Amino acid sequence: MDVQASQSDFILQVEHLSMKFGGLVAIGDLSFQARRGEITALIGPNGAGKTTVFNCITGFYKPTEGMITLNKRDGSTYLLERLPNHEIPARANVARTFQNIRLFSGMTLLENLLVAQHNKLMKASGYTFLGLFGFPSYRQASAESIELARHWLEKADLVDRADDPAGDLPYGAQRRLEIARAMCTGPELLCLDEPAAGLNPKESASLNQLLNDIKNNTGTSILLIEHDMSVVMQISDHVVVLEYGRKISDGNPQSVRTDPRVIAAYLGVDDEEVETVLTEVGDEDVIEQLDTGPDSAHGPGNSASMMAGPVSDSVEHADEGERVTVSKGASKAAQVDARAASVASKPTAAAKPAAKRSTAKAAPKKMAAKAPAAKAPAAKAGGASKGKEASAKPAADKRGGRK
């Protein structure tokens, strides 16, 4: 019972997900969970594999390995990697938006939201003839669809433009209309691919308000890909960070924001600058851990990409004939891990300076013992110089006598 209860807390469970395109490993052994009724953000640098994860969840790609489990509120469970892609929104109630806006620009806002309810209306119309003759069941379904569309237009603050063409809206309003259209399908999981891309601060604030309203009032869980960190940190309950198809951090926004691997990988900060960034963030514990640099003579070398492993810049799998080539030191997160490991492997570093101090104290005594012996040559040298001066005087006198 406890296991079932814990599973019901998570609407989405991704386990050991891998997606390979020939020799390219886009996603490698990724596992994470998204809680029901929360906003989970999936972030990372460009090319980290975030959209590939979305494509696997929504059925556009069939993963090479792994399992994607969706737990609905009614207790039913779906393995998304086994469902045909058209059944994922219909049966598992997963909706999605894309990086590029995909509205019907020539249709009105209201018509765009009615299109999202096409399946429900077609079923109510008996696939044409009940709607054609105006049966009560179809009229009722049509009225409910229009009411739902108007409800989400109000939520998106677009009801005043319900009869305007979607292509006439400003960019930020089109983004909100896309989300409203997705919500008209009644999803339990809403996947948003960079909804704040290209928005100004005012439009981003309106987007945040809409997403929080969806989370608080509908029970819909949101999985979000976003590069705008102000949006991510303000509305996310849980953040998963990817780099080169691998998970490098997983937790609440505050812990992820101060993770040195995230700072190095996602923000593009070199290892030498990590401490500076941490100082600005104010994480003193992590600053102390990274205060001492790695021993270049005994520490590990530059790490390769996390896909290719920490030893070489390429890895071969003989069983699959696969070869992945990645530039050395590509993973900034792996470099931070290497630095932390090298610092931890130097327990005797404090003893060496003490030994050097003791030898430094002993050195003056030896010098003092040798000092008296050094006076004799000085005396001899002084005597020799006096003799030279004395011999020089008679020579001068002789020269004077000749004059």
TrEMBL record:
Task: List the keywords (alphabetical).
Answer: Amino-acid transport, ATP-binding, Nucleotide-binding, Transport
Q: Does the keyword Protein transport apply?
A: no
Q: Where is the composition biased (Low complexity)?
A: 330-353, 369-383
Composition-biased stretches (Basic and acidic residues): 314-325, 386-403
What SMART domains is this protein classified in? Answer: AAA
Q: Name one Pfam family in it.
A: ABC_tran
Basic residues: bias regions: 354-368
Which CDD domains does this entry report, sorted A to Z? ABC_Mj1267_LivG_branched
How far does the signal peptide extend, from start to end residue?
none
GO MF terms, alphabetically ordered? ATP binding
Q: Which residues fall in a coiled-coil region?
A: none
Instruction: Give the superkingdom in one word.
Output: Bacteria
Q: ABC transporter domain: which residues?
A: 12-269
Annotated region (Disordered) at: 289-403
Query: What is the similarity comment for this entry?
Result: Belongs to the ABC transporter superfamily.
The name of this protein is Branched-chain amino acid transport system ATP-binding protein
